[in-house]
Amino acid sequence: MNKLTIGIIFSLLLPFNILLAQDAKVLFQEIRWKQGNSQEKKKATELLWERVKYKIQQAAWEGALNDLDKLHLMDSSDHWLYAVRARVYENTYHPLEALNDYRRALVLGGDSTLMLTGMAQSALYLDRYDVALVYLTEAIEYGEKDWSLFSQRGKVYVQLMRYEAAERDFEQAVMLNPDADEVWYHRASLAVGKKEYQKALGFIANARHLSPEKMEYAIMEALILGEAGDLHWAVNSYSSLLERDPVNLVVLNNRALLYMKMNRFTKAMADIEKAIRLAPEQPDLYLSRGLIKEFQFDFEGACQDWLKASELGSKEAENYFYDDCR
């Protein structure tokens, strides 16, 4: 079989009528293959791969998995089969199966950096940050200096609360690629956690300069201003963002909490009520409304909101309820 690359996932789309014809061809070739004809086995394999490519393009994940399982019966030594199947498993939220297939692909000769990175992502889906750290470290050791690997590992270090190691990786990432806006964003977030607000503002300014269209960077800048105590500047920043996106839940929620800190409760409630109307099943919004009510000494109303948020899945709201409402 011709050498395949991971780009198989993004191959050209087959027309639907060709797919129907391919189904018939695949069935015919599978019957011939079972009779032991090596040429027919090769043809069946090629046709199955074509159908896999089409089904992946259509996000028909179960169908793609069925065909990949058939290819596995035909040839269980093809490392690309495991690599592609791992990607399909990721898209169907089966991280453990994806991790196992990436491991098999690595053993069979798959690209070490690519497979190890895939294994790390699968471990992250499983919340195994310690395991992901091992795989990313191995990927960095195997491959060339790739800024994205340092960025990914830096984020894992943050989850493990190893902030100095995270900062070293982010620094390495921007040395390798100063135009990596996402790394500047992560550095800003890390600086906020350390209450280094001026440094954080410098980092987020770099991110916004590189990608001025990204809303999350502008939101982060407003958040940093608020954390630094510049409440009026932060409110003005959020107000400007709402002119761009009047129904942005994060911005409405954040501005409501700032108004609360400024004792502007009418405006705070207006923002949070609008957000709840837009997303009545979002638990964090009830958590915030509960905080605003608590600031106004409406303890019963606060407890009702925290109970609602906890019922919708907010652990933080559950803690508020059990600490303050029982």
TrEMBL record:
Gene3D superfamilies reported for this sequence: Tetratricopeptide repeat domain
UniProt protein name: Tetratricopeptide repeat-containing protein
TPR repeat residue intervals: 147-180, 249-282
Pfam families, alphabetized: TPR_1 (PF00515), TPR_16 (PF13432)
Coiled coil (residue ranges): none
InterPro entries noted in UniProt: TPR-like_helical_dom_sf (IPR011990), TPR_rpt (IPR019734), Ycf3 (IPR050498)
PANTHER family referenced in this protein's UniProt entry, alphabetically: TETRATRICOPEPTIDE REPEAT PROTEIN 6 (PTHR44858), UDP-N-ACETYLGLUCOSAMINE--PEPTIDE N-ACETYLGLUCOSAMINYLTRANSFERASE SPINDLY-RELATED (PTHR44858:SF1)
Organism listed in the record: Algivirga pacifica
Domain of life: Bacteria
Keyword vocabulary terms for this entry: Repeat, TPR repeat
